[in-house]
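Researcher: Next entry in the queue.
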Amino acid sequence: MKQVDIVIVGGGPAGLAAAVAAYDNGIKDILILERDEQLGGILNQCIHNGFGLHTFKEELTGPEYADRFIRQAAQRSIPYKLNTMVMDISRDRVVTAMNREDGMFQLQAKAVILAMGCRERPRGALNIPGYRPAGIFSAGTAQRLVNIEGYMPGKEVVILGSGDIGLIMARRMTLEGAKVKLVAELMPYSGGLKRNIVQCLDDFGIPLRLSHTVVEIEGKEHITAVTIAEVGADRKPIKGTEERYTCDTLLLSCGLIPENELSTSAGVTLSPVTGGPVVNESLETNIQGVFACGNVLHVHDLVDYVSEEAAKAGETAARFVRGEIAAPAKSVVLKAEGGVRYTVPSTLDPDRIGDKLTVRFRVGDVYKDAFVSVYFDDERIAHKKKRVIAPGEMEQVVLTGKQLSEHPDLQTITIKIEGE
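Model: Structure for this entry, 420 residues:
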């Protein structure tokens, strides 16, 4: 069994950024395992621009952004294996994988970084009545067909769900000559970024119908029409509001799920809210030496934040390999309340955060002219007003080492949304 200092599962933007950061922090014995035929992950099919504004201070396409990190990894001669499927990760960090060249093999890692990304919520999870005809695709599958394979899924399109991929595909299908009739969203708010609603729907005259869902699919061999209806506060269709749209394509953009089957088999504790691992300030899971970052940890809206988070995981994994990170001496719990759905991390050791720690979170509803408040036990230490806070956009607060040092007996940090 080969010994490796750090094994990174996934060669997308998170895995690449983690590898570069680990290398730059003194660990040279790194191996990236990627199941696809090339590095870059999902960015390879995201040919639209809007990436890199935070990381590189310029606007890049997805492949261009991925290429920056692929080049950085190549300059450092960080090894990787493509077309390699990781089958299992044990609690003592034995990674079992297989590919055509090596067959099945095992690696004993001193640290493992989970960077497997996320997948789309399938039709089976949506409970849409009707047959299962051809012409129903997840938005990401349609994106790959159009942008990489060169196939058009159809000419008359209805999109269910207003996640960012669905919004971007509304524009993409329009540019390729299809007629996108509408985007229907079950919730009373969009799940995507505001800029995507403007640039992908408003600019092309594509209607967004909030609080609507698909209640019927017509067609046995191939989809011929869908019926949508308005839903009430209980998310159930309201009789008499049905509208029928003929179409040959239905795209589903109904949420993303962190890809955590490997994490589960390894015994990693998962959050019931995010579906990703529960981590501390070092992005370390409950299994010592196993770290998580990117969309496998929680679904991000900007890849720049993925890279930033992954760099942190690479740095702390490198410190763990060098023996500089011991078990936490103290654990302060982070609580999400008052509209905040979750926080990443979930716990922290004040002595291990250094100068500052970025805590990321999402809210469960749209809030206007509200405050993001941070409490150290019962004392409010931050109270920042925001014009709009929406579920589709990740929020963050920064905690400093100085703040934490001034509260030596701190037990709980609470992040909540308040009206005043």
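Model: The chain has three domains: 1-119+256-327, 122-254, 328-420.
Researcher: Noted, moving on.
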